[in-house]
Amino acid sequence: MTPITEVEGRRLALSNLEKVLYPATGFTKGEVLHYYATVADALLPHLRDRPVSFLRYPDGPDGQVFFTKNVPPGTPTWVRTAEVPRSEGPARMVVVQDLASLMWAANLVTEFHTPQWTIDTPGVADRMVFDLDPGAPATVVECCEVALWLRERLGRDGIEAYAKTSGAKGLHLLAALEPTPSGEVSAYAKELAVEAERVLPGRVTHRMTKDLRAGKVFVDFSQNAARKTTATPYTLRARPEPGVSAPVTWDEVGSCARPAQLRFLAPDIAPRLQRYGDLLAPLFDSGRAGPLP
Hints:
Layout: E1 4-7, E2 10-13, E3 20-22, E4 27-28, H1 29-47, E5 51-56, E6 66-68, E7 81-84, E8 91-95, H2 99-106, E9 110-114, E10 124-134, H3 140-156, E11 161-165, E12 171-181, H4 182-199, E13 204-205, E14 217-220, E15 230-231, E16 247-248, H5 250-254, H6 266-276
Parallel strand pairs: 13-14
Antiparallel strand pairs: 1-2, 3-4, 5-6, 5-8, 5-9, 7-8, 9-15, 10-12, 10-14, 11-12, 11-16
């Protein structure tokens, strides 16, 4: 029988708890659900009021992996949904607002991806993101060097940046903004990516073309477009191990000499939250949200 659990007064059927989703470590679906319950206080503010795209991997990362943007069939009526604009016409998407909704979504086995805007102001960003993606043989170590340059450069424009791992190979930089049309944010982010390529020749590219990226850090500014999403802080990733997109300190970025120093798995996150709290909490402080120059 599928266990029935009550979460905040909502009845949830949590299935296949013993199923191994991450064969490299033996990490099970039950452990996935336990992880999300443990980090919910930190994760939920980053999900709240943002439409969620699910990257689902119900049979683990070696099985079928697929994006779900529309409300999945069988979604409980108590899970909040919202109509959001798309170029092909409006669509209805899930908005994870509370622990019960989070655990329902986690039971689908998913990465959480969110845009830089909220459902109240679609296409008007309150965050800016840079995705730093290393092309082999470059690693997250080289991403850290670029992140430090971007942090300083953003600071000159009065914008305070915060870092997290992507949960895969690279780093994400996030900054809080006064509400700004996504197109303007994308244009500004592209300017900085182009500048980084000029100032750090041979180490950075702002172009996505694969054959230009070997040994360089691709500064992806495109995730600021209104239609794009980024892996939400604290989400698990569909990788061989249960890696997490984990906030990191600038000291950790500055001292990174080996990729393993910035690789965090699900069991690492609760101790980090106990030590640091949510390192991205300043993103919710309206006093830290600055205008674009």
